[in-house]
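Exercise: predict the structure of this protein bound to pyridoxal-5'-phosphate.
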Amino acid sequence: MQNLRIPGPTPCPDEVLKSMSRQMINHRGPEFAQILNDVTAKLKQLFQTKNDVFLLTASGTGGLEAAIVNTLSPGDKVLSVSIGAFGERFATIAQQFGAEVIPLRFEWGQASDVDAIRQALKQEPEVKAVLVTHNETSTGVTNDLAKISSVTKEFDKLLLVDAISSLGSIELPVDDWQCDITVTGSQKGWMVPPGLAMVAISDEAWQANAKAKMPRFYWDFAKARSYLEKEQTPWTPAVSIVFALSVSLDMMLKEGLANVIARHARVAKMTRQGIKALGLAIFAEESHASNTVTSIAASDGLDTKKLLKILREEHQIVLGGGQQKLSGKIFRIGHLGWVTEEDIERVLEALAIVLPQAGFGGEKLK
Ligand SMILES: *Cc1c(COP(=O)(O)O)cnc(C)c1O
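Solution:
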């Protein structure tokens, strides 16, 4: 079996895969209503929220678009706190729908600086919302969301959070941290195939929703709410993925959220230690290195494309490359969802063999 270690899609346990071979059911019938209620209640537990939680049939990006169009109007100012490719994507969505985006960019590999956010909010009193990526998958950095939230709330702004690669894997108590919209995606830490975005909406976000004028139809949260009252979704949902999610949520609750989070922390620490023991360096600022994805700097002659190719072809291990300006400069190991220490041990063992074959150590030889 392939050892798929990219930051999404992630491998699915057998029970999850089996649940999807079920026959279709009426998505407006009593059987689906029960599953939907059950899944929604379990998601609320794992989101640590009492707010509304909706399933959207989309990849994570659909959830990000929903967050924007449901809370903002064209011309609204938003502060985009960006530390990598996904932060840029969130800002681009806002801009495409007519928001006036004020960019606050940090060097890729670094976390955002909370004082700089405070400064930006002081300078721009008209800002309506702050956009932030909790865990920047492109660089392997986790932002200090609790602190970012407290600054955002000091200035009484909406906080829209891309938690696609963190929620369910890294601590994120949605209500305690006052996140107004929180978005995640089924194929990341949830051990489920791609196809669902899950979003939480606070009371403040609902107040913004009532006034928000950006165009929306498929993503309309007001429709999602009125249908959920009837135990339905407005549009045909990805029924099979809902079956899968129902099983994976049971598995997560059985393990316990605190244990799931601790497992991710343990596996991530082991990954970082193993990488350093191989003579490589972590690309991310280490104090904020992610517990779901480790980014590794290419150094000392390492050809990352060759590395990924040999790992895939000769060791059945699939790792991620660098995105955009990090292409060829880093590679990434995903360790979220269904992952244990043994999965990473296999990766580290293979790396020890393949690194020299991919040029690593070559600089010294010259
Ligand atoms: C994966 C990811 C996305 C994009 O999600 P899709 O499901 O590919 O649309 C956005 N933000 C972050 C942080 C991600 O990890």
